[in-house]
Amino acid sequence: MHRALLLIAALLLTATSRAEFLFERAGGAAVYDWHQDITWMQDANYAATSGYDVDGLLRYEEALVYIDYLNASQFLGITSWRMPVMNYVTNDGKGTFGYCGTDKGHNVDPASGELAFLYYEHLKLQSKFDCNGQPQTPHGVTYSGPFININNVETQAYSYSTDYSPDPSRAWALHFEYGGQHADGKLSPSPVWPVFSGDLLYQPGDALPAYIGLDVLPWNVANEIDPASEAPLPVAMMGTASFDAGQIDLGTVRFGAGKAMTTGNYQIGDRNGDSYPDLAVFFPQQDTGIACGDTEVSVYGESYTGETFIATDSITTVECDTGGCHP
What we know:
Immunoglobulin-like, 2 domains, 4-stranded antiparallel beta sheet, globular
């Protein structure tokens, strides 16, 4: 589902916050991953919890049958459950082992796969080894909520649906006990963590985050942005009667597809004359992920009181041609 549709339909969606914007859905049975725009099953070993399998450890082909079962039974009303997928950094399906920033190994690039992003970005878990290959502690699953029953055994890994290109008898997998991502044999029993693309519709009684105004380039009505610019990008987050923008925790604020953090410079004041405090900040534009053709951008974060917020604004990209952005 396109991000714009998600934000326009926001008042029809439920949300209970987690760090990096993980939202509980269906009374906690599912968790929406706002940044990846996917929804995880809250129980990371539901195959066992539900009684489908004694221990929930399934071979690859058995896992596909289990996914078909979930869809046939319309679990939570969804018929598009699937296994997580790899996205790749090198996009060759092979992966070069490394201790930092690769597809395969430890401390992999979070963009390399949906499980990797969940492990390293959302849950802030550590690998068994640092980027220099030295042991580090703690590592593995060392947090509480919103997920339950995460498999934390070194000999078992959550499997991706994605084949390992050099050997189709193996599939990519991520070990939550030590943070390693590599290929495991499809005959090895593994836990299954179902996910589906998009969000789950509103469940009555659940809370919503604060949806506030966003003003990108406050002096530019058209919000014209050159994606190739290296100048800091100013934005203002607008407070409301129910949300004090002056209480926003800058350390939690993330802007654009690149999840850019603020430069640290900020100003609090009433910028739109409604008597409520607004927060003006700058973002390093090269970190925002804004690209030619983008028509909107979003920001999210939390207040010091733990209240989450989302804001979006329309933009126009300039200095672009059919080949991309002008330098």
